[in-house]
Design brief:
Catalyzes the synthesis of alpha-ribazole-5'-phosphate from nicotinate mononucleotide (NAMN) and 5,6-dimethylbenzimidazole (DMB). The chain is of the alpha/beta class. The chain is 51% helix and 9% strand. The termini are far apart.
């Protein structure tokens, strides 16, 4: 798909009939009205998304999009660039946090390498290499138009595969050393802010390191300034392959009608971009958690969404979203299995 085709991708409407039926069911369950709080809200929302009275979150699909960033050479991360490749191998061999969480959830788990400086060779890693890295956006655009199109398409294809495998809930995770700098730069461009407003600790850089990140972002904003207008052009200039793949995945999930659980800071920036392209796709997004990464809460506020969890998690990989699936499963179990007042002979 060409860049402009992404702007025309439709978003599937929510099924209001099933949402209404789920709401009526909730009213009949043996509890004071509203007493299960957001668990009720989530079950009803999922019913509208899945077009069933009793939704299910048993079939979860987790795809990790991984890529290196040219801006890493500006020393914006607490970790060296080769960690991207090392973690890809760790995802595939089961040792990463998201690998453990995916196993716990019984999720379909896929790792896609979109381009790393240190090549990856592992039978369980899907290699869709666009280039060895995105370009350093303090010097030039992070991606060419064709690289952006490839990345968006790789994300979308992952969702189509997940749907063909019967996935009910999709999580995009990311890995890419320096990607908090890219995510912060993207938000500065969208919200017309300065580096200092958006830069955070990422993997754990010092206060001085955060100041340096802010300066790197400011340099990029000056370089690309006049061109930072259309959302996909902002993404092309300041993003990265894995962030673009998440945008493509979210847009395709909304088009095909698959509920999404959004993860932390970087994923939320990708969700924000997808929403800038088509506001309706927000309906398909459940925000899993809030990361302590500076500025995550601000974006969630801008989007007027309330994440399910706030556990101080600042890992990425899709990990916060995966933990939130447990709550969604609980919401679905209660909705499906509680007795009604009539069944249990309880006075209403
Ligand atoms: C061992 C390790 C595992 C990770 N898993 C996710 N990230 C997270 O940290 C990176 C972003 O932070 P920054 O912008 O500071 O580089 C991303 O790759 C993100 O997913 C990790 C980072 C490390 C070091
Ligand atoms: O919130 C996140 O997703 C995050 C924060 C810091 C580093 N990596 C990921």
């Amino acid at each position: 798909m060409k860049v402009n085709d992404w702007l025309d991708l439709s978003v599937q409407p929510i099924n209001l009939h099933y949402k209404e039926r789920a709401l009526k069911r909730q009213a009949q369950l043996t509890k004071p009205a509203g007493s299960l709080g957001r668990l009720e809200v989530m079950a009803v929302r999922l019913a509208g998304l899945q077009a069933v009275e009793c939704p299910s979150c048993e079939r979860v699909g987790i795809t990790i999009f991984a890529a290196d960033h040219g801006v890493a050479k500006q020393k914006v991360s607490a970790y060296p660039q080769e960690v991207t490749t090392q973690m890809i191998l760790n995802f595939a061999s089961g040792g990463a946090a998201i690998s453990v969480l995916a196993t716990q959830l019984g999720a379909d788990f896929e790792v896609i390498n979109l381009g790393t400086v240190t090549p990856v060779d592992h039978p369980d890693v899907v290699c869709n290499v666009i280039a060895s890295s995105s370009a350093d956006f303090t010097e030039t655009a992070a991606m060419t138009v064709s690289q952006l199109e490839s990345a968006l398409g790789i994300g979308a294809d992952a969702v189509i595969r997940a749907q063909n495998n019967g996935v009910e809930l999709f999580i995009a995770g990311e890995m890419g050393i320096a990607n908090t700098t890219a995510a912060s730069a993207l938000m500065a461009a969208f919200l017309n802010l300065k580096g200092a407003d958006v830069a955070g600790a990422g993997t754990g850089v010092s206060d001085q390191g955060i100041q340096h990140k802010a300066e790197v972002i400011d340099r990029a904003l000056i370089l690309h300034g006049p061109h930072l207008t259309a959302p996909l052009e902002v993404l092309r200039r300041l993003g990265g392959f894995e962030i673009a793949a998440m945008v493509g995945a979210y847009l395709m999930a909304a088009n095909r009608g698959i509920a999404i659980v959004v993860d932390g800071f970087i994923s939320t920036v990708a969700a924000y971009i997808a929403i800038q392209i088509n506001h309706q796709c927000k309906e398909w997004m459940i925000f899993g958690h809030c990361s302590p990464e500076a500025f995550h809460q601000y974006i969630l506020d801008q989007l007027e969404v309330e994440p399910l969890l706030n556990l101080g998690m600042r890992l990425g990989e899709g990990s916060g979203a995966a933990v939130a699936v447990n709550l969604l499963r609980t919401a679905c179990e209660l909705h499906r299995n509680m007795a009604t007042f009539a069944d249990a002979g309880v006075s209403q």
